Amino acid sequence: MILKVSKEQAALRRQRYVKPSGAETFVSTYMGTNAMELAALGHPKNSVVDRAVTAPMAYLVEQSPSSTVEPHFHQVDQFQIFIGGRGHIGTHALTGVTVHYSGAHSPYGPIVAGPAGVQYITLRRNWNPGAQWMSGAVATLREMPGRKYVAYTSEPMNRSTAAHVSELKCTVVTDVIPSQSNGLGAWMVQAGPGAALQGNPALSNGLFWYVLTDGLQSDDSALGEGACFFFSHEEPSFEFHAEAQGGELVRVQLPWG
């Protein structure tokens, strides 16, 4: 399975959603179906959904200025790429592109937005029915046998200037979350003019690319800023190509098991 969705396509599925804490958000769905979109469309909580169309999941969250999303966890592994605004997640500052990973049943947060709000894209391989808020779910976690807490937050990465990227002579790959034996990992990728970017989906339980800048191409089609791609592990290796000005992406791999 290969899915490619542009920022403009996701904007057609933009919905307003207010979290239980009162934090106003707007959710633009790239792939699959998520609990916030269902609620915004008037579906009751825990609605029966067709699992065949719910995953993989990718959606952009625009969190309103000076708002807080309280600590919570999800039932599946996920990445969040913070791409705009300022604030903090837990004790980690959000001052640049930041990648956060939380394993299934691993609490994180709060997500606190600054005066300009904060924007982040959430990426999951499997369906998740919604946030489990720590205010009422602590006992559930304590009673879960064999549960492991797994979470990582990268250091904020400042976006490069277009001039800097256009001067690169090769592809620069920076570890954001170093690769692990179960396939987990995340990388910032900067491609100079004409560079090829390769990937092997078989190494993980799903590979996402999020495009930070214009200037990249795949299968003779341009990859605009804000585009999101998913490759399932059954797919063969693939290549992107940088155009004359080069470009930047974030690549994340979800773990097996």
Question: How helical, in percent, are the residues?
Answer: under 10%
Classify the secondary structure makeup into a structural class: mainly beta
Radius of gyration: 18 Å
Number of strands: 21
Fold-level CATH name of the largest domain: Jelly Rolls
Percent strand = 35-45%
CATH homologous superfamily of the largest domain, by name?
Jelly Rolls
Cα-to-Cα separation, first versus last residue? 19 Å
* Mean pLDDT, all residues: 86
Largest sheet: 9 strands, antiparallel
Poorly predicted ranges? none
CATH architecture of the largest domain: Sandwich
Order of helices and strands: EHEEHEEEEEEEEHEHEEEEEEEEE
- Supply the number of structural domains: 2
What is the global morphology?
Answer: globular
Q: Treating each run of at least 4 consecutive H or I residues as one helix, how many helices?
A: 4
Could you characterize the architecture of this molecule?
With 257 residues, this protein is mainly beta. The chain folds into two domains: 6-153, Jelly Rolls, CATH 2.60.120.10; 162-253, Jelly Rolls (Sandwich). The protein contains four helices and 21 strands. It has helices spanning 7-11, 35-40, 134-142, 162-166, and strands at 2-5, 14-18, 24-31, 57-63, 68-69, 72-73, 78-89, 92-94, 98-102, 111-124, 132-133, 151-153, 171-177, 185-191, 196-199, 207-211, 216-218, 221-223, 228-231, 238-242, 247-253. The strands form four sheets. Strands 2, 3, 4, 5, 7, 8, 9, 10 and 12 form a nine-stranded antiparallel β-sheet that branches. Strands 1-19-16-21-14-13 form a six-stranded antiparallel β-sheet. It starts with a strand and ends with a strand. The mean pLDDT is 86.
